[in-house]
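Our preliminary data section would be incomplete without showing what the modeling component actually yields. Below, a chain of 880 amino acids is followed by its predicted structure, encoded as tokens that our downstream tools consume directly.
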Amino acid sequence: MRTERNGRRGRQPTGLFVEHEGFATIDIPPRCKRLALELPARSCDSRGVHRGYGMAAAVLVSVAVSVWSLSGQAAITSPSQSSSASPGPQSQPGTAAVSTTQSPTTHVSPTAAETQRALLDKYCVPCHNDRLKTANLSLQGLDLTKVGDHAELWEKVIRKLRAGVMPPPDVPRPPLADYEGLRDWLEAEVDRAAATKPNPGSVVLHRLNRTEYGNAIRDLLGLEIDATTLLPPDDSANGFDNVAGSLTISPTLLESYATAAARVSRMAVGYWKSPTEATYLASSDASQNQRLDGMPFGTRGGIVARHDFPADGEYKFSIQNFGIGSFIPGEQLALIIDGERAHVWPYRGVGLAVGMTADTDGTLEVTVPVRAGSRTVGATFIATNYRPSLDIIRQYDRKSLENNSIPQLQYYPAIGFVRIQGPFNAQRPEDSVSRRKVFTCRPSATIGESACARQILTTLARRAYRRAPTAQEITTLQTFFDQGRQDATFDDGIELALRLMLASPQFLVRSEREPAAVRAGQPYRITDLELASRLSFFLWSSLPDDELITVARQGRLNQRKELEQQVRRMLADPRSESLVSNFAQQLLYLRNLPATSPDGIFYPNWDDELRQSLKREAELFFESVIREDRNVVDLLTADYTYVNERLARHYGIPNIYGSHFRRVTLPPELDYRRGLLGKGSFLAVTWTQNFRSSPVKRGVWVLENILGTPPPEPPPNVPALEETKSDDGKALTLRDQMTRHRANPTCASCHKIMDPIGFALENFDADASWRVKQGGEGGMPIDVKVKLYDGQDVDGPAGLRTALLRYSPQFVRMFIEKTMTYAVGRGVEYTDMPTIRTIAHDVARDGNRFSAIVLGVVRSPQFQMRVKSSDVSVGTNALK
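Predicted structure:
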């Protein structure tokens, strides 16, 4: 589902840079190489800072004032005024802008322009003229010898042509050679004009979102925290939650960050003396029939959670039953902490009342000693009973119906929640992962408290700030240490200084210094340290490690060979899993799965185990493309998938047992499961109204995520599909209902494009199971034969996949666009498209491999450069 802030996407200036003395070479299309040597010396057409940065900068100043005022520091230096105290041969490529030389104006051949003008007049202008302005677009009278003057308009045309969606269905189309010739000619003209206007775009301030915050705490302090319990959700824009324009800063969020800093610093180096309480709930449709990840083999169901124990001490664990009705007796429940059994209960004295919160339902309790730290806690059943069901009526996979028992059925038991209280008799921890990361020294006869504290804080600040801290920053941290040390311990002083560090703008906000020597609106290269930060948050969603910072401080990261070496090292690092858990989850809409819950009456086999299996299948499938460095088009065509027993049963794949996921090659009879179009996660998130699939949503998903041409928003007051009836009162298939539903010509223009795509996928039900009839065995046969918008005849999911492969180059470009959006933290604009086409051209020679796309994005000017937004400093603007 698309999420956009403030209606329209913000527009940021973007563009290209070319080979120039002192800068790395960026590949440009061959047709532009001659022109690139004679680029005119001029400033790019900057439109200024993205909407919302003024407010963000103002709040940044206010948080610095509020936090630093405790030490007498009541101001923040703007990025353009600050200086990094980085030792070593750090290069400063940002001190001079890219300069170019003037070249004579290049004219388009009148013959070529006249040929394309005739094609447009015949096939496009009849609808897109000054009188009709269909889709608010007129191509009438535009001078094709000056395509670059209207690049934004022509990029819209190119996108439609690339996806093949224009001219619309039932309208004559030009021959394929002419069609592709027009498309390629327009691209060449736009690219030629863009080569004279380098404009890599600008992002001034970039707040860490809560995923990046949690990962940064993990890498900085060795703490596995659940950031969702500390910080509110982040807004999304352009499909991702790391887009700078949507990461605003509010007083409430600042308070959350301050509270989180206090809790995290105490967990890292201090301890909680007062008991706290945390409760972990099971999903309302959980069945708990299979082993959970993180639990030992030979266990079944239960709850697994990552819990932070703030001190050495005793903790009380309380567990209640999940009220799903009567359960098989004789079970045993084990409490497991970090893979070791802490306690085992006979499962008796619980489940005495319907519902898991009744006072008379019974509770299992135990108090055990636990050492401080982030630990995996699980309450799970020991799988010693494998007897088959003796019920006389059929059991479904889902064992509960809105937490009400189903009469005459007996299940394996399930638990409803785990509550952890403590610590009791708390003691300061002597050793933990976080303390080993923080305390790089201890006061002794050879090193005093002040010197040791400075060493600790300097090491932490270098990692947290992603650069060498300034002398003033260390002095401020030392002042907080001294305050915390008064009438307390050395550890307490470090805790207070760490609290300031974690609440400071230097940690929470990624800012990039604007060199004073560069004019406003002029592009320049960011520093190596800033490039290291961009790279680590792109590939790891976290802080740069010591090796990356060291290479950046030495001024070697901007070198093409060194940059490629670091990218490949980072892709091989386990932290690149964030490309799956963060990038892929948003790209494939996997974060919408928790809200996906088809009606249990219509889909009794849908439960949380299936939901989690569908999510894991998609993650492993995407990860295989990354780890095996495959062609990204394999996302559409791969003949394998990943299943466990639960998902294999749902798909109809035999001989798969256990909860462990394994890779299976799809046989010919399951050809329809190949690629993303056959994955249950995509099919499930496009359900609607709880009880049926949605061809419209599936068609929109394909248009957005495969063809890169999202349709416009629907008009208001559209009646529900269920209100569409036949004239004689007979039952209608979903396809017949939709045919009547789109009788409105305004609606038909879009539905003619997206509905056939969805109809071809109607063999997949709302829960992603395969079907041939709508309404069960006695229902109406499903017709999946369609004619697509481009005239191709398609019969079912496999035929649709084959038809879409005609547009695989557009899918690759769409994938590059999404990757660039995620990498640079802003939406892709029309001025970025020449760069994206250059990357697409280069990666095609390398088989469209995933690593080639990543390297193409990282080498691009959009990633390595930015445009100076203003001659006025950020801090001054904020105060205004």
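The longest strand covers residues 415-427. The chain is about 35% helix and 10% strand. Preliminary results of this kind motivate Aim 1 of the renewal.
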